[in-house]
Design brief:
The chain is an all-alpha fold. It has helices spanning about 1-5, 10-30, 35-50, 50-55, 60-80, 95-120, 120-130, 135-160. The protein has eight helices and no strands.
């Protein structure tokens, strides 16, 4: 049973269904929406010392633990699987640390700008928004997917990135 839940990858329909049920249950039970960009915004507010965060420390919020749990959970899963196996899209830029760092920084800045402009990140719209029936999230997700497909085709067909 342990292997079926924690080791063997779930089929897409089971994993997607479990995530959708969790999101809807969390919204109904707690009235809170699960999302990364709002937690990241909270962390940025805490770091920059906004007045609201001086009155209520960031570390008391559940979003802190959610945000910290994402990379920590990935590291724990990698450790349980016998060690990390890092494969990233940044490997397409070769061995240049400067070029890889510039690409990572630029990509992060564009993702942050896009999340701000779209009123949430891709996971927030695609998982939470659609699960809660938001038409705006459906439109945003279709836009994210179209842009992703387009950029992928551009990278593979025009620039020859493999």
């Amino acid at each position: 049973m342990y292997d079926a839940i924690f080791v063997t990858p779930w089929p897409w329909w089971a994993a997607g269904g479990a995530i959708g049920l969790f999101v809807i249950t969390m919204a109904l039970v707690t009235g809170k929406m699960l999302g990364v960009s709002s937690g990241y915004g909270s962390a940025c507010g805490w770091v920059s010392g906004l007045k609201a965060w001086k009155e209520k420390p960031f570390c008391e919020g559940w979003r802190t633990w959610f945000l910290a749990g994402l990379p920590l959970g990935g590291l724990a899963a990698a450790a349980l699987a016998g060690g990390p196996h890092v494969v990233t899209a940044l490997q397409a830029f070769g061995d240049s640390p400067a070029l890889t760092g510039a690409a990572a920084f630029s990509g992060g800045a564009l993702i942050g700008l896009g999340a701000r402009w779209a009123g949430g990140c891709t996971s927030g719209h695609s998982i939470v928004g659609i699960a809660l029936g938001s038409k705006g999230s459906l439109v945003a997700t279709l836009g994210f997917m179209a842009a992703g497909f387009g950029v992928t085709q551009l990278l593979f067909r025009v620039f020859g990135v493999a």
